[in-house]
Amino acid sequence: MNNIFIAILHGLILGGAYSLIAVGLSVIFGVVRIINFSHGAMLMASAFAYYELFTRFNVDPFFAMFFIAPAFFIIGFLLQKVIIRPLLIRESASVLEPTSVMLFTIGLDYAICNLYLMIYTSRYKTLNTWSYKNYFRAFDNSFVTQYSRIIAFILCFVVAFGLWFIINKTELGKRIRAVSQNRDAAALCGVDVHTTYGIAFGLGTAALAIAGAAMSSFYLVSPSVGNVFGTKSFMIVVLGGLGSIPGAIVGGMIFGLIEQVIAQFIPSTMASMLSFAVFLIVLVLMPDGLLGSRKRK
Amino acid sequence: MSKGKVKRLLSLGLAVIMTASMIAGCGNSGTAEAPASSAEGTEVETEAGTEAPAAASGDVVKIGSLWPLTGGSATIGQQHADGAEAAIKEINANGGIKSMGGAQIQLVVADTETAADKASVACERLITDDGVSMIIGAYNSTCCISSSEVAQKYSIPYISQGGVATAVTDRGYDYVYRINNTATYDVLEMITALDTICEENNLDTLTYALVYENSDWGADNARIWKEAADERGWTCVLDEPVTNGQADMTSQVLKVKDSGADVLNVSFYTDDSIVFSNALYANQVDLPWGVWSVGGGWQDAAFFEALDQEVYNYHFVQEDWDMCGVQNHEWIQEVATQCKETYGYEMTSFFAQGWTVAYIAYYALEAAGTTDAETLRDAIKGIELHNDGTDRALLSGYSAIAFDEKNQNTFDGGATGGTIVQYQDGVAVPLYPAEHSVEGNVPILPIPSFSER
Fold this sequence. Notes:
heterodimer; A: 297 residues; mainly alpha; ABC transporter involved in vitamin B12 uptake, BtuC; 2 strands; B: Rossmann fold; Rossmann fold; six-stranded mixed sheet; 14 helices
């Protein structure tokens, strides 16, 4: 089987995992206009939750996510309600972009990472689940990947569709969209802006917790794991268009394909550089990202 | 209490927890060894983080213990720090630095975060804030290079352990010493073993693939391998540098598979070595004369905990210590038991090397009898040890410690302490050189193809 075809398949699978991790970030930015720099740390925190459930009670992460994701929804909701809301209110009078919230999320990232470092030390852990240890094989064994990656790929579309459905087809989504377009106008129409923000933050965090189930099943669990995916998630979201759910998927797929397919022709280090170059070019030519601008038109 | 007040209190509480966790977790410089009292009975504060008397007072001498405790090499750095801590505990329990009236040694642990810039900042802080008399560290070549640069600037003796890049001791710095072998030794040990294999199996030539982390360490290993292979007429079919911290390494593995190499040489730290080995196994890449790792992640206990033995079976690993030491010497067996009981893992080369470098720092202090930087520097230079199997400093199995004009350990022309092992049924079997092997140990070669396993 042609290596390029196989590399494309691997690129799409990897892209799906990237998209799954990035989609929650995109939702939070799209609605609350907050760049959540603690995204990587929260992903790590969810991975450790799955680690505990798996090692103590032998609960598979893909089953545990039905409990962990709602828990993370509550954590995200409370985080917005208790901490971020006062900061937003304080700043809304003077500036449009919530700078202090951004700085808060940076601090939160450091705090969470260091807290987990204290508790779990830096030792790498793996969850030897069924989907981690078993491989999906196709095309006469030419295409081989962990089942967990296949599940991550499917979950990417399920989560993206779920979020899209909530935002575009429900009464709650109508409120979310109203707040994201103009929070003052939405408030004048009787929408509880900060509760809506809390729900959006909770949804983004819950989506991230689902991504954590996938990530912990195909990668490592350690306090520094957020660094591997955190920065990349920001780039994916900006590339696809801040706040655009389909954009997060497209961005993730582009990154996955560059890393897997282009790397077949050039050294891997150059392929990594190329993904940054693509990001910069798109940022210069299309400041709203690949799908962000279309949405605004 | 009103709702607003509750929220404000909650916010305040969270802010306090965040700040506390950042301060505690950053671990910039925590005191790892706290002496109970000096030999003369002077009471010294023992609580971690308590300010100890200055080194010049003669009661406590501070040594900076600089390792990657977070980031990609965190687990490896922790093992070095553990080894150093265990050695210093033993030294202090045996009466401390006798030439300094029984002064106790206090390790001040600092984290490089596996990053060159952070390593130099941490090193500067050890010198200016903590007032250490000497620094040991810092495992990663890039971190050793950047942090020793700072030590040289402040004229503080620095004993490098772990970093194998030639640049560590090639800059003409008089305060920077290295006791471990350079990348040249590591790679040539593997090449020499492969020479033996070629001879035993009547192989005229080999094709090889190089996949390595694009750092000073990885690039140095690849360059030295290539030069040695060129001399032997072997053919390079893939030269693939990789940026560290990869979420997936299938693309690199597909290239290896496509190259049809006989031998694969890899240089990765723990996180990447786990991801790469998994991808190599999943894609069933047949390499008849083996996967040869220069160490790094393949020496880390976390690597073996994370993978099933089928994944790393048949891999060859260049271990930076005498693997048979535990079997051959009772005292090494005792240290290994102590390591298992105290730190919860089987003794590794990283633990042994952390132990050795701490002991060498102690020997220098003992010889100098002072913390004066210049005298200490000269005392390190004057160290000459030969391994007769009893010197506790040489837990790592180095044949000798004697420095050349560049302050690089020459091992006095003897063995660097390295052992080439092959994993067979999940167990590391020492094979090369012969003096570090055990009678009856033989390599499994050519390696059975995946279809035959």
